[in-house]
Amino acid sequence: MSSDTVQKLMALAARQFKAELDKLRPEDDLFEALGIDSFQAVELISELEDEFDVELPDYELQGVKTFAALAAKIDKRR
After folding, report:
1. Other beta carbons less than 10 A from residue 62's beta carbon
2. Could you tell me if 2 and 75 are in contact, meaning their C-beta atoms sit under 8 angstroms apart?
3. What is the CATH number of the domain that holds 32?
4. Domain region containing 35
5. pTM of the entire structure?
6. Which among 5, 12, 26, 49 could bridge 68 via Cys, Cβ 3.0 to 4.6 Å?
7. CA distances for 67 relative to 2, 20, angstroms
8. From the first residue on, what is the mean pLDDT of each consecutive set of 10 residues in the chain (78 residues)?
9. Cβ-based burial of 76 (10 A; exposed 0-12, middle 13-18, buried ≥19)
């Protein structure tokens, strides 16, 4: 996972869900850190697919809970 990807991911997520970027860490559980539910997570994934120009299949995202793990999946698809 590139630090650039995780930083960009956290910035986009913070902006979308009005979270404080300086309080987010790569190892944070994104559901807890952002205060989102599964429906909002789907919205986030859609935004990420557009932003990073990747397709993130549902089966690859099962069990992904941290910003770092999600960034690794994005990098894998680039």
Report:
1. 7
2. yes
3. 1.10.1200.10
4. 3-77
5. 0.93
6. 26
7. 12, 14
8. 91 97 97 96 96 95 96 94
9. exposed
